[in-house]
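Sample A.
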Amino acid sequence: MDSVSRLARGGLFHGPDGLGERRTARRLIPFPYLHAEKTSMADYLEYDPQTIERREVYRLLTGSVVPRPIGWASTVNEEGITNLAPFSFFTVVCVAPPMISLTIARNPDGSKKHTLLNAEATGEFCFNVVTVPNWKAMVDSANGFPEGDSEFEHTGLTPIPSVKVSAPRVQEAPIHFECKVERVLELGVNKHPLLIGEVVYFHVNPDVMEGGYIKMEKLDPLGRLNGFFYSTMGEILHREFHDGQPR
């Protein structure tokens, strides 16, 4: 196992359970047989989310929806202090206009995290795609830092100006989405925040482009797995189209 796919110990965990505490491998509980019910179909384990613990639900979801792309959300507060945090619960939600969604867990005390507070206050944020060469900086950026400090300062990452939003971009990332907040939804009993942003400007490093397409081999994206593990691209499969035209 290479260094990229190994666990990142001690980082702040940005998951949907809202825990956000540091974790080590020693705290893991054997899974998935804790509360599985017997079923007539012996090949499957069955779980009812109404009767199992939230942590088990989380493990089922994050172990199934893999690999997840990782990105840095960069924001700035009203005092001009920048914030940077990595997230893997994000995806595309619309093309016209272009929109992405970002799930931001609350702090253990139920308060909002800086990313969400800043995005709501300014109505803006920037999302930066994390690649394999940046995986260590991504892990470091998830650690807790003193109030008022910027993650850019502690990680050595470089903030650069955006075109249409106040939030900075991450120079080391090959792709940036400048976003305006479209809406924030609060889901579930814990009012779990789902941030939806409209992409108002794209930045793509020409080194990852070829023939008008972003080439995965050149992008080298980092994937989030479950537990403490990450993944690289591995083998890329190519599907032939009947009309010979890629989409």
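Sample B.
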Amino acid sequence: MRKGKITLGVIAILLVLALAFVALRNSYYLWLVGKFQDIPEKFWLHRVNSPLKMKEFSEKYSRFEMDALYNEKDRIFNNSHDAGDGQVPLSETLKFLKPSKGAWFDVKNLTEANSFNAEEDLSKIVKEAGIDKNKCIVESHCVPCLNFFASKGWKTAFYLIGEGKRQEDVKTQIYEAYKSNCKYLSMDGHMYELVKKNDLLKNKKYLVWYYWEPWYKVNNKKMYQDAVKNKDVEVILVKERGHFHR
């Protein structure tokens, strides 16, 4: 009996090691394939929240997603995901964004109360950086805020919150997005299959996040091919931490 348990234990360990080997080999294979491919323009780099990260990848990717927190008192944008992440002026990061490239601003705290000043200040720093507003996207969950930004010439994206939400909640959000003036609907990749089947959103384009995967995996894994090839998916966020991720 004891020998049988030992044998089963050895088999289980060997099976785990074999699966790990296959997974690592598959990852290496996809990385190797990527070496012979160009990064598609619809692949934007996720969470570029420091000037050094922007500088590191400014030549590699054509577009970049940045988190932004608006400080209305000081009239500045902080290039951070959370308030506790420290102070990095968005204007400093934009100094390393080439004017020919585009930006996606995920404004975390946009409200109806601060949207007027926020739009004015974001327009100012984008202009100072020499960036074309037409190449920029402003993302938020606040529909009135996004409608205001759209009236000022910005491309806007409604942030569809899916994590921890019931399907009925998601449907309510989809209806909000449908009524808005937003050009884009922004969503986690796990929600893509649900959203693309909704007839209300046929007039919207999609921004899909696969922020847990590097570009070469998204570009070559079968499970992502529908989004990669779908012309209604204009942007796919991909992961690359680099040396200066924050």
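B remarks: Strands lie at 43-45, 63-71, 76-78, 102-107, 136-140, 155-159, 184-188, 205-210, 233-238. The first strand starts at residue 43 and ends at 45.
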